[in-house]
Amino acid sequence: MSIEDLDQTARTLVAAGKGILAIDESGPTLARRFAEVGLANSEANRRAYRELLVTAPGLAASISGVALSDETIRQSTRDGVPFARYLADQGILAGIKVDKGTQPLAGCPGEVVTEGLDGLRQRLEEYRRLGARFAKWRAVVRIGEGIPTGTCIESNNHALARFAALAQEQGLVPVVEPEVLMDGDHDIDTSHEVHEVVLRSLFDALYQQDVMLDAVLLKASMVLPGSDCDETAGVDEVAATTLACIRATVPAIVPGIVFLSGGQDGERATAHLDALNRMGPHPWVLSFSYGRALQSAALHAWAQDPAGNADKAQDAVVRRARANALAAQGRWAA
Ligand code: 13P
Question: Is the pTM of this model over 0.90?
Fold first, then answer.
């Protein structure tokens, strides 16, 4: 696959008024989400829930790509159509989460490093055959007493860059996700400082690994005060601080930045994205790759009555997607 094709795929993912639906939760994370709403974590339930989301009527009007997990990309609709093919038929690109989750980082108490580079070339090759056109890798950075350390930031960014280079080699657009967690009592200025250091180091690492920046998407966390911080921040303050941070760190050649919701309330995540876009024009497209902020209402509705509430649940995810598609253009009205 040539750079033109990859570049085209990246631009398709951030086409005007479209964003990514992330349904690529790992087994343990989905088990936790199911437990919260009283659903049994069976293979049948996981498949049925993912089918509900993937086949929601009207999804393609606001969703350009759906990120899947290893289990989901191998599953099919009840009529036997593989999810990746079903999505492609709707004009939606299938993506795949390829990291293997986090492990404690040796020598750095309280910090983690994302694993999954071993055998990655072969796995990417297989995922492409299964229909994936983009791939995602998530690194996790915690803010706390004396953390993050440079060791944590650099180890994670090195892995992100190795992943990105391999994904491009195999014809998949890498979505690089260095998530700075909201957990903690830090203020927004601390979050800003950490995000700047993390993003600068990330782009250094991508440069060192010869990653083509016009065929990469950055999946970033917004700059927010910690969830236990006494001071709150208004929508415009979050948007202005996030914007100052990405302006200082993300090269203009990167086609798009898709934000994660990171546990923000769904409406709030939409309001922040909308405010960011109202502060444009920007050199990159600013859109979304939300998991919880798009799925929460749908999951709750479905859990209440899987047979009776399927339409209601599908309507809920499409409505959240539509609101965020407007916010991606700065045209959302609360
Ligand atoms: P949230 O939007 O729920 O944070 O999930 C996004 C995601 O895909 C994390 O990797």
Answer: yes
